[in-house]
Write a structure and sequence with these properties.
Blueprint lengths: L2 E8 L1 H5 L3 H10 L3 E8 L3 H7 L9 H8 L4 E9 L1 H9 L12 H5 L8 E3 L3 H11 L8
Antiparallel strand pairs: 1-3, 1-4, 2-3
Bound molecules: 2'-deoxyadenosine-5'-diphosphate and magnesium ion.
């Protein structure tokens, strides 16, 4: 499998509980390398743009409100098969369905406050990395 980059976010529910280090360690322990990282308190407009694919969903308002409720840590992760690997370490969207040992099983509070985001495909990974980072901010 090829070395890939994916986009990850540690969401406000997790930063508020001081879990940035604990979650980053779970990502690193899975073989992912943090090649870019910054803390941002996203605006409503940034959250709406980032999650535009979900704008017709009934939970969109709640999603934007949650994502703007505190600081987020946005990261680029690099590794073999990084996109799928990150999704595996994250666990299912609803923590009630997440496998043991996954970030969402261990740390998420609910389906809405589920602690982490990860890109789901090469196209979204490229788009999402570009949404938050310039090329010079990524140091492999
Ligand atoms: P994922 O974050 O696992 O890729 P997704 O892309 O389907 O999941 O949804 C994006 C986010 O929207 C998800 O992390 C939390 C929120 N969300 C999804 N379904 C929801 C629901 N039924 N109720 C509340 N929030 C939801
Ligand atoms: Mg998604």
């Amino acid at each position: 499998m090829a070395t890939e980059r994916t986009f990850s976010m540690i969401k406000p529910d997790a930063t508020k509980r001081n879990l940035t280090g604990a979650i980053t360690k779970m990502l690193e322990d899975a073989g992912l390398r943090v090649v870019a990282s910054k803390r941002v308190w996203m605006s409503k407009r940034e959250a709406e743009g980032f999650y535009a694919v979900h704008k017709e969903r009934p939970f969109f308002g709640e999603l934007v409100e949650t994502m703007t409720s505190g600081p987020t840590v946005v990261q680029v992760l690099e590794g073999e098969g990084a996109i799928l690997k990150n999704r595996e370490v994250m666990g299912a969207t609803n923590p009630a369905n997440a496998d043991e040992g996954t970030i969402r099983k261990v740390h998420a509070l609910s389906i809405g406050e589920n602690s982490v985001h990860g890109s789901d495909a090469p196209e979204t990974a490229a788009q999402e990395i570009k949404y938050w980072f310039s090329d010079t901010e990524i140091v492999g």
